[in-house]
Amino acid sequence: MHFSIQKGLDLPxxxxxxxxxEAARHVTxxxxxxxxxxxxxxxxxxxxxxSIKLGQALSTRKDLIEPSYITPLxxxxxxxxxxxxxxxxxxxxxxxGKPASDIFKTFS
Length: 108
Fold this sequence. Notes:
This protein has helices at residues 53-59, 67-78, 85-96, 100-103; strands spanning 2-3, 11-12. By secondary structure, the chain is mainly alpha-helical.
């Protein structure tokens, strides 16, 4: 068997492919890396009720994220509508099973 590759090398390949499909883990998530899409400008929109914890954390880590992504991620913090501290207290209580005052030295 011989394959012809245009604008490349002609490589003589011998043998046959193995015709089996092996079991693999179920894919639950995938990632799109920015450097795979040169020239595209990333944008992110925040709607009420969306989880933004990861974006908030990443927007402060200029040492981990490419500069072209920092501005859109920073908007995640800028565009969040304020909400009651009572909601925060209830969420912390529900998540950690104890009040914020038992977990945090200060909370602002």
